Amino acid sequence: MSSEQFQAAHDSIYNAGTGLLQYLQEIRQSRLSEGDDTKGLQSVEDDINKALHELKENKYQVAVIAAMKAGKSTFLNAVIGADVLASETAACTICRTDVRHIPSGQIPRLLEYREGQRRPIVLAEGDAGEIQQKFLVRTREIREKDNPDDTIRFEIEYPIEAISGLSSLAGFTLVDTPGPNEWESTNFNVKLKETTLEALRNCNAILFVLNYASYKDNAISDLFKDVIENRKEILSENTGKIYFILNKVDQKTEKDREIHDVIEDLKRELTNFGFPNPIIYPASSRQGLLAKLIEQNKANESQVKDFKKFFSARYAIEDEEGNQIIPAPHKIAPKALEDSGLPTIQKIVIETITQNAGWNLLSDALAKLDKAAKAIENSLNTQFSGWDITIESLKIKVEDYRRHSEFAKIKVANVKKSVEQQKEILIKGFIQGVSLFAYEAKDKIQNEIDQIAQSRIGKSTEHNIKQSDNLQSRVHQDVDWFAIAGEIGGTVLEFIPGIGKVLGKGLKTVLKTSNSLLDSMKKSVPNSLNISDSGYQNSFNISDSYIIRVKTKAEAQRIGTTINDFCAPHIQSWWLDTQDKLVRDGTKIREALVKKIQEDIQQISNELSQYLGQSLNVHININDIQFPSFEFRGIDAEIKYQQEVFTRTRKEAKKDSSCCKSNKVYYVDVSYQDKQDFYDIDLRQTAKQIKHKIDEQVLKNQQLLQRVIEKQIEEDFRNAEHQINDFIKMFQDDFDRLLKERNTKEAEAEQIREILNIQKEKLTKYLFQLTAIRVSLDSWKPLQTVR
To answer: How far apart are CA 679 and CA 560, in angstroms?
Structure first.
């Protein structure tokens, strides 16, 4: 579906919905003027308003991911059509930044969102230059001061030129995600990874920007490896919305390979990384940005100068005498913009959005409007039927309907019991998945600690290595949904074809480390690991490889900090991987559960309305299960020390110092001949404390997760229950109204029938219009839609 087709379909549906809403309001108003209650039609009006609101306010997100120096900010500015995002050699994107489209007449703003604060802080208002300067100053401040205000994201409200002519995409947002270089150079690494994973799950299109001159750099390789780890399934499912932008192709020289050859090489690299059938587009973002600014008469003197310096010569022409003439920038800007590759990329991205998320939106909105129109038709048909039978027959029918309604409510209650059972299966499965994360994370940390102790064997007179209860030596236990279901006495949504295969894959993740704790220790405190190199250690007969004894407090602190800096980010990163897998697989399970709720309630509705010859279409929106954060800040935010001082002579028995409990490094001040201080770090106690912190966080998250799932499943059911109750009430109101009118307005029967006929003729036009739109929309239906 092209952007023009999408816009036309969007307008048609919105106009049809607006007309239907006005028609319904006129009916309600006429009934109110006669003193009748119209609450039965209120839910129908609410559905129409909801559909119209979603059409206007639906969000479309395009994520942009890149390594540093790939030209990501310039690329984004080119799409926006303004030099609003800062670009410098240092890492600029320290956290997620959303660029949200606003109408051209609205004042642009820069907003900052902070943890725990619902409302954003307005940092700047005005033109692109003002926003860029304030944004640059603020990001530098956050980086230098280690984010004291807990900033979580920025938002720039600015007109995005790429979709300026498409009112149907008013909710368009560019998501600027930090790249892998920022992951390493700031303290935001976990949040940054989380942003990228959220983009893979939730964004309508994802653009990976690569530098033409360095697309094989390790930073880019690390990014892809981290992204695809445990995620090959989702990458395969979303191939159609992932694109690669080979940026800065304007830097190609005559000696370099042809762009086509580079793209073919890159395709092979990406395929090896795990991206099936990668789609790659070459681009010159700088050329595109400058050309777009010049074409729109928004370029300043410096930007025009840059365009002339770097790009104008390519469009030189010869006069009759063979002299080279360079046309004025505004004359060659359109061609330069086209050659930049930017228009092609914009068109492809917009088509991706409209073909998938856009088509789904239009289809869902049209279904809601069609449901509303048929509900009105049902009400009119009921009234016609009520005036065609005797009042005695009508009373019998009303009483019969009440009995059917009560029986339907009993069936709804039974559906609720089934939902409760399935909810328990889902909760237990998720909690088991989180527990598996805890087991593996603790085992992984213990293994890292054991490696340190193992490396010290033979460097002391004796050693005592006790290997951990290593999960890696056992068969990995995935989440067994069927066992959980058997325990509860239920089923695992086997009514969905292939769901057993999905669940059979389990919620397993692979917990890996980018390096080892031992390597980190060797770099930061190399002498502390080698007992033979520390004479004072041997003098106290340190025989336990898990005890590290050092002379200075500074050295002890370096050890604590090294353990901290290794464990905290790895544990948080593992949690994000686990969470990401749980969200994706859990959402599939929840979708299956929602589908079952929908089918059960639909069946009740159909049975209830059989004798009325009507049916109800139940619609439920699916949202990702929301996970709480996993706050693991390491051994402690700050290493604390507790000093125990005592004196002993040669004849005194050695007293053991208190062991390191992860958040404390204990040390002893000893008098032995010359007074001498030393500090002990017990790696066993360190590992024990880290495991304890993991258990604390896991328990907290399991409790929060249970509440979140319970709330969301209950909302799913309430949504369906609300619709069936509205359905029941609408007909009950119609019957009550008929009884009242038959008792008081029997003489006006012909006039009432005539009014109903007029209303039905108007409604028929809307039903025909909606049917025609559906036929047209289905002709544009993509082979596979990505929601």
So the answer is: 12
Q: By the 8 A CB rule, do 529 and 452 touch?
A: yes
Task: Quote the CA–CA distance of 180 and 193 in Å, as a whole number.
Answer: 8
Which residue reads 């919105």 in tokens? 14
> Tell me, what amino acid is at 226?
D
**Phi, psi angles (nearest 5°) of residue 515:** -155, -170
pLDDT in tens, 614-641: 433 444 444 444 444 444 333 322 222 2
Q: How far apart are CA 669 and CA 554, in angstroms?
A: 15
Residues with Cβ within 8 Å of residue 99, at least 6 apart in sequence: 76, 80, 84, 85, 155, 156, 158, 160, 173, 174, 175, 176
Return the pLDDT at 308: 92
In angstroms, the CA 17 to CA 51 distance is 8
Q: Does the pLDDT value for residue 293 go beyond 60?
A: yes
Percent of the chain surpassing pLDDT 90: 23
Q: Which residue has the higher pLDDT, 660 or 604?
A: 604
Measured distance CA(311)–CA(333) in Å, rounded: 10
CA atoms within 13 A on the CB side of 459: 20
Burial of 408 (0-12, 13-18, 19+ CB in 10 A): buried
Q: What is the DSSP pairing of strand 640-645 with strand 60-66?
A: unpaired
Asked if 249 and 284 count as a contact pair (C-beta separation under 8 A), the reply is yes
Nearest to 440 by CA among 628, 274, 573: 573
Contacts of 610 (CB under 8 A, 6+ apart): none
The helices-and-strands tally (H runs, E runs) of the chain is 23, 15
* Cβ–Cβ < 8 Å for 19, 766: yes
| Residue whose pair of structure tokens reads 């038709």 in the numeric block | 377
Least confident of 276-280, 662-666, 703-707: 662-666
Other residues' Cβ atoms within 10 Å of the Cβ of residue 266: 18
Q: Structure pTM?
A: 0.76
CA distances to 7, 297, 383, 395, 756 from 741, in Å: 46, 68, 10, 13, 14
Summarize the confidence of residues 772-780 as an average pLDDT.
Answer: 90
DSSP SS3 for 114: strand
By the 10 Å C-beta count (0-12 exposed, 13-18 middle, 19+ buried), 693 is classed as buried
Q: In a 10 Å sphere around its CB, with 0-12 CB exposed, 13-18 middle and 19+ buried, how is residue 194 labelled?
A: buried
- Of the two residues 480 and 434, the one the predictor is more confident about is 434
Q: Are 172 and 103 in contact (CB under 8 A)?
A: no
CA distances from 355 to 54, 89, 347 (A): 17, 37, 12
CA dist 401 → 595, 724, 730 (Å): 27, 14, 12
pLDDT band at 666; cut points 50, 70, 90: very low
Helix (H, G, I), strand (E, B) or coil at 782: coil
DSSP notation for 336-358: HHHHTTHHHHHHHHHHHHIIIII
For residue 641, what are the CA distances in angstroms to 345, 534, 664, 666, 703? Answer: 57, 22, 5, 6, 33
97 three-state secondary structure: strand
Which residue, among 325, 48, 96, 68, has the nearest Cα to 196 in the 3D structure? 96
DSSP codes, 702-740:
HHHHHHHHHHHHHHHHHHHHHHHHHHHHHHHHHHHHHHH
- Phi first, then psi: give them for residue 301, nearest 5 degrees: -60, -40
Chain center to CA of 80: 22
pLDDT mean over 248-252: 90
- Read off the pLDDT of residues 303-313 as tens digits, 9 standing for 90 and up: 999 999 999 98
pLDDT tens-digit series, residues 174-208? 998 876 555 444 445 566 677 777 777 788 898 98
Strands 324-325 and 317-318: antiparallel
